[in-house]
Amino acid sequence: MKKLDRWKFTGKNGEFKVENVDQSTYLYFPLANEAEMMSAITPRLHGDIKTGQNTFAMRPVSLEDLHNTKSARNFWLKVNDREVWSATGNSAAQFAKKFSDQTETVELNAGLLWHKITRTNEKLSLKSEVTNFVPTNSDTVELMQVKIKNTGPEDLKIEPTAAVPIYGRSADNLRDHRHVTSLLHRTKTIEKGVVVKPTLSFDERGHKPNEVSYAVLGAEADGKAPVGFFPVLEDYIGDGGNLEWPEAVVLSSDDYLKAGAEIDGYETMGALKFEEITLRGGAEAAYIIAISTAEEEVDFEKLAAKYCSQEAFEKHLAENKKFWQQKLNVVDIDSADQEFNQWMKWVSLQPILRRIYGCSFLPSHDYGRGGRGWRDLWQDCLALLLMEPEPVRDLLYNNFSGVRIDGSNATIIGSEPGEFKADRNNIKRVWMDHGAWPLMTTKLYIDQSGDLDFLLKEQSYFENGSELKAQNGEIYQGSIIEHLLVQHLTHFFDVGEHNNCLLKNGDWNDGLDMAENRGESVAFTALYGSNLLDLAELLKALAAEKSIKKIELAAELSILLDTVEEDFDYQSVEYKREVLSDYRSRCESGISGQKIDFNLKELTADLEAKGESIFEHLNQNEWIETKAGDKFYNGYYDDDGQRLEGDHPKGVRMTLTGQVFPIMAGAADQDQIKQVVDSADKYLKDLSVGGYRLNTDFKELKTNLGRLFGFAYGHKENGAMFSHMAVMYSNALYKQGFAEAGDKVIDYIYQHCKDFDTSRTYPGIPEYINQRGRGMYPYLTGSASWLLLTVVTQIFGVRGELGNLVLDPKLLKKHFDPAAKAAVKTIFADKLLNISYFNKNQLGVKDYQVQEVKINGQSVNFENKAGAAVVERSLISKQHDQEVNIEVILN
Length: 891
Ligand code: G1P
Prior knowledge:
α8 crosses α20, α11 (480-493) runs antiparallel to α12 (522-546) and α15 runs parallel beside α17. This protein has 21 helices and 50 strands.
């Protein structure tokens, strides 16, 4: 196989280019706007366009559809009555490699969020430049400009045809009633294009009149309309033809329709025939195509007038570039490695992309029907808190209405605030980690903002698809802190036989879904432990700030706050289960609606007792040593109650997840962390896949633990380098002061992704690296949030602490540029902070501390907390200008 050159950054806003990009098959790129127009586009312009599960303008694609032309945007040229050439590379001749790599070359240039392919054919003296993007307004349209240049001296006679097959229906009909749904199509031709509006939205549970229309519109550079259309797919390809060799183009058919035609009941083709031209040597012609899905009544003539000219295209493209540049300008990394800084631009875009696409609408993410899962929702908010803190408060508040009073939650989140659906495909499942994420995000929010009042805001609970009612029939509301307590206290008591939280239908690892009865997640027990301690800290801060001694909580919670009045025995599994069953039976018949006052001191002591008991238990019972003398934590028990990790006849078993949370939680001491790092280096590190694998090879189909053991080893949740967990590992290491070890984890991923010939992934962090080293499931991964969070709040150490600004850098020597400076831009206290660290003496991370902090040139007082600076929020918020410069001298 030909070795591929790596991508190269070409600008300051993430712009990059890839030469010979068509030599790689599974690449795709997102084009979207916040009105939820969602496209995917490949180097050959394959990929689909949609606004949701039921509204695909182009045929839905999964990974393996990316190399067929059924979902390809095409633009044909018939040249000098002889050669048929696709400006997007989609002719049978091009697939058959009629033109060698020497005569036809392809280059990608892309940026935030636009995609340009340049295809040069020396033999034909033709060059095409095809640019696609989605304008950043409320229109649901993708625009494409095709520029054709005659690169030779001779005149060329050109017959141009734009060709985009319009699928125009729900993804569900890809196979289910594919033909029958074409009978619903009502297609017409208008002045500048082809429009189809199906009569019904097909659903055998109850068909509904359809309101959605789809269109392919186009014009020449000056806005001149096409001369005619081939709106029916079978007429366009002709008998015996196909989309790669369509008769209409190949035979220069005159059998096209003019505007005003109506055709019912066939697959629609957005084929637009333009006037034949003579392209002089060196001359250029341009065509603008718009592909739209309109959920409401839209005047497509007007839409074409708005977009289908070169002037309009260039104007909207410039606006698009500016929009995304400004949107991402709120966080900027300026370390010595310029490429890393640019790579991070794409990483910061990813959480926004996941908000738009959910986990369902890019080619690798071909599962679900839209929306996001609970844990993804909360984790994406981590990055959004650093980028768009303003709307996140409401988002967090609304999300809490998805919590159930039994500590579980709605699992699928719709696109509207507070819109929840109980379960995907109506399969009721409970993931035991779900209760832990909201606190992490809420704590970050409170630390960044100082908004402790948030904890006292009242919110409803979720029950049977709506709001929980108390016994008197009224909607019951409790404070946010009550929601958090419910989530943590219920999990604390919900233990398996080894006194760890039950695994149920899985934890963070969706693939651990076959140990519902006896499985336990030690990993997440650790996280619940530290969360309980964090909750206690938040309550103390609340008590101090508000000078309060009590808070009101649901009366039923007194059962779970058992240290307050009763004798308790947290070593006893039976005791814990009894308490939980008592609470559940009290809630089963509806909760009383009564609230009682809880003494804050007693409450915090209760949470601390619980959190500490977990840590004690972990270190006594789950810290293991192999025969070879390696030490690390056991992370799980399977459905037969067997410990998962450690020595095994088929080889030592270890998971990364099992290590990450005890470290992050602070349950492991420094010595233990060192030993975990050594063990992870020995058993999990593999640079051929970008660093630390998720687990060792168990060489067994463990049907008593989960589906992931059915995946081939080294893929996805079975032992791939799974970015999300690896980045959390790095975060945990940084948090506990292991900067070098933490840096390595991220560096391995980054270096691997940069090696494009192996990783075959555009800039940004993919969900995982597979056994062949390929970056898989790009863009829509929670690891991006965690990476941004880790870089800003750990490596650069810029974070909030109950509203004050902490500057606690863990930058290594390599991060500082030749002027001994490393800088980061981020939002804090509603200001855009430009923070520059100076390490003039080139000290190592363990040898420097913050010596001086200057805000807009003025030295300010700060509290020195173990070498870090804590700067009062008011010193920042009182600054007049929106942008604030902070210089930090390290010594
Ligand atoms: C994906 C899911 C996430 C899950 C993880 C492991 O990770 O989105 O909810 O925890 O797989 O099963 P992501 O794509 O966010 O990296």
